[in-house]
């Protein structure tokens, strides 16, 4: 039996991923407003197993809902390395959060290297974060309103510089603060930690990072180094998600161990 998604937040047998380690310092180097646009691209439907849906909902509860008043409000989602499932995990977490809280949620595609959230939701990428950082006007003028649940998307857009200078700029910090004033929750999709230093820089201005690992692909040492790089950059690791975990024994027995 297989299970496509498993939340590892606070799981004792995985805590060694986040134990202290000596990490070398050099490893840290890490148009028109579209808010009211209803034009959508046709994309294949996303079919999610019910067990996966339950685990994703549980992730949202444990990170955003159950901690109470001090719960994180702005969180970065990123893979340890490039993982095709990272986009969907982040997107569906935002959908679950909007449904559970009945509050507005904004998704931000901060992966300027390989933007993907606009494709997941079938909207254009003409405006978005790129123009929001280079043009004046309220942040809502650069958003896509996705559905009636209050979910909005700030796609990556175009016309931005890659690299650390973007996330260190006063313009980005100002736009992020504006998003936090406008939305109770902001979920940010970042490039993989092992690819560049963007996730660490983004995490420094938010409430923490959720790491996404791929079963049978992400090496334990790679995940440990990624977590320690974030910690060394004073970024809180809120937890980890293990994607596509397989069970060598029946799940009913596994859960009793």
Q: Overview of this structure, please?
A:
The protein has one domain: P-loop containing nucleotide triphosphate hydrolases (Rossmann fold, 3-Layer(aba) Sandwich). 33% of the residues lie in helices and 17% in strands. The chain has 9 helices and 8 strands. An 8-stranded mixed β-sheet has the order 1-8-7-2-6-3-5-4. Strand 7, helix 8 and strand 8 form a beta-alpha-beta unit. Helix 1 packs across helix 2.
Topology:
Blueprint: E1 2-7, H1 50-65, E2 74-79, H2 86-101, E3 105-109, H3 117-121, H4 129-134, E4 144-145, E5 151-154, H5 164-168, H6 170-182, E6 185-189, H7 198-203, E7 209-214, H8 220-232, E8 237-246, H9 251-254
Helix pairs in contact: 1-2
What order do the SSEs take from the amino end to the carboxyl end, as H and E? EHEHEHHEEHHEHEHEH
What percent of residues are in strands? 15-25%
- Rounded to an integer in angstroms, the radius of gyration calculated over CA atoms is 18 Å
Shape: globular
Strand order of the largest sheet: 1-8-7-2-6-3-5-4
Keywords summarizing the entry:
9 helices; Rossmann fold; 257 residues; alpha/beta; disordered N terminus; 33% helix; globular
Q: Can I get a quick summary?
A:
The protein is α/β, with parallel strands linked by helices and 257 residues long.
